[in-house]
Amino acid sequence: MKSSTLMVILVLQAVLVMGIFAAVAKENESKGNTETNGGKLKCCSSCNFSFSGLYTCEDVVKKCDPVCKSCAVVKTHPVKKFKCTDTFLGMCGPPCKH
């Protein structure tokens, strides 16, 4: 009984902390303090999600998604490859089909 009560308390604390981080991230975004892309990628297979509610997509692709504001070259030889370096608020898109 005590261990299940403790588990419920720990889960509720984790949810509370995640909610606070997400609210702070959203407030910072609305004030223009962070460079967060408000769009949503069509897909992302290597999603890097943080507890603040922000994520980045680590996919290396032939061409960045049109919603990406900052597309960086990460490989030049033998074929040029890119990665979107934007930070997104919310959830990752579905996995990409290769």
- From the N-terminal CA to the C-terminal CA, the straight-line distance is 48 Å
CATH architecture of the domain at 37-97: Ribbon
Amount of beta strand: 15-25%
Low-confidence stretches: none
Radius of gyration: 17 Å
Number of strands: 6
Helix share, percent: 25-40%
Instruction: Count the DSSP helices.
Output: 1
Largest sheet: 4 strands, mixed
Helix and strand composition category: alpha+beta
Shape category: elongated
Mean pLDDT: 82
GO molecular function: serine-type endopeptidase inhibitor activity
Domain Bowman-Birk serine protease inhibitors family: 57-71
GO cellular component, one term: extracellular region
Signal peptide: 1-22
Question: What would a concise description of this structure say?
Answer:
The chain is α+β, with helices and mostly antiparallel strands and 98 residues long. The chain is built from one helix and six strands, in the order H-E-E-E-E-E-E.
Task: Describe what this molecule looks like in 3D.
By secondary structure, the protein is α+β, with helices and mostly antiparallel strands. The protein has a domain at 37-97: Cysteine Protease (Bromelain) Inhibitor, subunit H. Helices cover 31% and strands 21% of the residues. It is built from one helix and six strands. It has one helix spanning 2-31, and strands at residues 36-37, 47-49, 54-57, 71-75, 81-84, 87-89. The strands form two sheets. It has a four-stranded mixed sheet with strand order 1-6-3-2, covered by helices on one side. A hairpin with a 4-residue loop joins strand 2 (47-49) and strand 3. The N and C termini lie far apart (48 Å).
